[in-house]
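User: Could you go from structure to sequence for me? I need the amino acid at each position, not a summary. Structure tokens:
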């Protein structure tokens, strides 16, 4: 398979997704990260469309990209303007990028209803827009918008638009499934028809694919297109994009490299893929999808005892690739489906010396299943499970003892938020400590009071922070008296860890998770 071209449009098409927003600084950081990964082209945005994009094109010039080439994105000219007078075409040139990508109408429905011009007029603006841009840019790409719908609607006209784009000098014709409704078998048939048409006309041009995911086929459509000879693959990191998203490059790249022998620069750097995927989610302030192929936290997670036992012997039994190839890791989950193998593997991971015939294994399994019946869950709270194991083995130290706490939530006026105060009495190293703190909510007040009491004795707690706090109602039919599960994610300068608590009282459940979180930190630091 000849060298492929990976074209990322996260900064343009990706930002059209609901709740996906990036500042100029974020876009710069993502550009540099994708450059490290080896992405060939990054579409920076539509010049002049908004202040962030304008600022981005100005700022990115200050950075030395090692591999990636930038493209500016826009449309064919407005029918009322001559190419040299069209503000959109001027802005594309002024962006100063090595590449320009413009889209044009391929579907006769869009020409008549959206542009409201004649079919021949649309061919003209495709032709003269590309001809005008050609001398000003090194790489010129043409996105054939709605190509597959256009082909199904009026085959001859769709092919005519492609012919004009080739004749006008486009380096690559990118076939767009803009509405995302085309299925893989249709993509194959239509690309074959286009290739036959081009061969009969003696025209030779690179093809690309730009697929949307409205029928959950964007990745499959992209891989089908490559298998049929497309060289450029467009998509976004984590598949973000308008409506249901774009083709997911974090799935496409490993599939091309590891399963289809595809050759492209980023193929040598796939060990950075998971890190890059999560980096983009973090900058966009979005939770990373744990079930995402290749890069998700659950992509190589094993829960059932039979699976774990088999993976211990040979990971290929339940893993289609080695997780390290894409920078991910194998995870053994602890749950009520766990067997002895899971417990022993977790013990090894935690550095606990435990043999398979040790009676403690049976005790830990029994305690685990009993706690999970009450609503505890350790898949996202492995720190709590490690503490459970160490307590069962008698190797977990008590760093403090609770003698009581009280939380008061007081609302004095309807328009004002409540005032929350926590008072706590604990014994630390033989000394009784009594503290109080105000907080944003009762749990925050309790967290502050506990840390206030402990930090004098354990200064390392000052570097610990609570990153996430989740509450899950376990039996909603009991209404406000239902059991709740609280999951807390904490971190310090070196790592992050999850802890869990369960009770019908949300403050008690939070207390359990908080105590585990602090205990784990102190144990980790060997205070």
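Assistant: Here is the amino acid at each position, in order:
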């Amino acid at each position: 398979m000849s060298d492929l071209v990976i074209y990322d449009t996260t900064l343009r098409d990706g930002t059209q997704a609901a709740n996906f927003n990036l500042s100029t600084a974020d876009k710069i950081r993502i550009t540099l990260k994708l450059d490290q990964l080896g992405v060939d082209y990054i579409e920076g945005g539509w010049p002049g469309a908004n202040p962030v994009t304008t600022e981005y094109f100005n700022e990115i010039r200050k950075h030395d990209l090692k591999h990636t080439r930038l493209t500016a994105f826009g449309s064919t000219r407005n029918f009322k303007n001559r190419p040299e007078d069209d503000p959109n075409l001027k802005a594309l040139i002024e962006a100063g990028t090595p590449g320009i990508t413009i889209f044009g109408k391929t579907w006769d429905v869009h020409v008549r209803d959206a542009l409201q011009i004649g079919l021949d007029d649309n061919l003209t603006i495709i032709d003269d827009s590309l001809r005008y841009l050609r001398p000003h840019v090194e790489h010129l790409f043409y996105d054939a918008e709605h190509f597959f719908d256009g082909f199904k609607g009026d085959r001859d006209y769709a092919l005519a638009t492609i012919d004009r784009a080739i004749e006008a000098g486009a380096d690559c014709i990118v076939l767009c499934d803009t509405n995302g409704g085309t299925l893989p078998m249709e993509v194959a048939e239509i690309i074959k028809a286009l290739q036959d048409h081009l061969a009969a006309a003696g025209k030779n041009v690179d093809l690309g694919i730009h697929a949307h995911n409205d029928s959950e086929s964007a990745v499959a459509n992209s891989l089908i297109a490559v298998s049929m000879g497309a060289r450029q693959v467009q998509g976004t990191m984590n598949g973000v994009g308008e409506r249901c998203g774009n083709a997911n490059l974090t799935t496409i790249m490993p599939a091309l490299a590891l399963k289809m022998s595809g050759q492209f620069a980023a193929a040598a750097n796939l060990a950075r893929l998971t890190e890059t995927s999560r980096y983009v989610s973090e900058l966009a302030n979005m939770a990373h999808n744990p079930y995402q192929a290749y890069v998700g936290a659950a992509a190589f997670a094993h829960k059932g005892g039979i699976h774990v036992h088999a993976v211990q012997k040979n990971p290929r039994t339940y893993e289609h690739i080695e997780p390290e190839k894409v920078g991910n890791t194998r995870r053994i989950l602890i749950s009520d489906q766990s067997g002895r193998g899971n417990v022993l593997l977790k013990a090894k991971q935690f550095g606990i010396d435990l043999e398979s015939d040790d009676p403690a294994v049976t005790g830990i399994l029994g305690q685990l299943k009993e706690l999970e019946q009450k609503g505890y869950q350790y898949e996202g709270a492995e720190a709590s499970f490690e503490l459970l194991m160490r307590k069962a083995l008698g190797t977990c130290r008590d760093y403090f003892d609770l003698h009581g706490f009280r939380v008061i939530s007081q609302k004095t006026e309807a328009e004002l938020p409540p005032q929350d105060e926590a008072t706590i009495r604990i014994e630390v190293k033989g000394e009784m400590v009594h503290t109080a703190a105000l907080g944003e909510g009762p749990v925050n007040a309790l967290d502050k009071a506990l840390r206030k009491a402990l930090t004098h004795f354990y200064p390392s707690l000052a570097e610990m922070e609570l990153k996430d706090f989740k509450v899950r109602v376990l039996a909603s039919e009991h209404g406000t008296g239902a059991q709740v599960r609280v999951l807390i994610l904490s971190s310090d300068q070196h790592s992050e860890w999850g802890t869990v608590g369960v009770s019908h009282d949300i403050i008690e459940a939070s207390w359990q998770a908080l105590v585990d979180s602090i205990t784990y930190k102190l144990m980790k630091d060997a205070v």
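One structural detail worth keeping in mind: The first helix runs from residue 24 to 37.
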